[in-house]
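Example S7 (structure tokens).
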């Protein structure tokens, strides 16, 4: 005898599948942005590895370590402290909005520079079959 799946279970399975698909898309976009943040904060600043995904200007905006005059590698006495949250992404059919928060401090003897708990908003659009970063906004 064949066991039937109730309509309620079918609906729950469909909802679960949709939520799983949405979560997978969010993770995909977040990981792409994470890799660009890591590349933008390398010393010295790298050339944009994905010009088809992000403009050079927006790539430089992701590089929070390169915005400060004192760099941890500039002198033997310099020290760096860097902390960043994972990227969190919400998306809908053609657009996505991502956020991460960073803190960065560099000290060289008595001088120090840095930014603390700065939220960064990244806007993406789905164009020509790929997610393209259209804006990077660092909230002051």
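Recovered sequence:
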């Amino acid at each position: 005898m064949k066991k039937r799946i109730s309509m309620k279970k079918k609906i729950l399975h469909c909802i679960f599948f949709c939520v799983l698909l949405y979560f997978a898309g969010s993770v995909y976009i977040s990981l792409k942005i994470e890799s660009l943040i890591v590349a933008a904060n390398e010393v010295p600043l790298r050339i944009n590895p994905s010009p088809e995904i992000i403009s050079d200007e927006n790539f430089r905006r992701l590089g929070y370590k390169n915005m400060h005059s004192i760099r941890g590698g500039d002198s033997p006495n310099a020290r760096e402290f860097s902390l960043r949250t994972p990227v969190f992404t919400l998306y809908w059919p053609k657009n996505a909005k991502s956020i991460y928060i960073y803190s960065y401090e560099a000290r060289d003897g008595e001088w120090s520079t840095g930014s603390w708990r700065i939220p960064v908003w990244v806007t993406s659009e789905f164009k020509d079959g790929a997610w393209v970063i259209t804006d990077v906004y660092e909230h002051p």
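Notes on this example. The mean pLDDT is 85.
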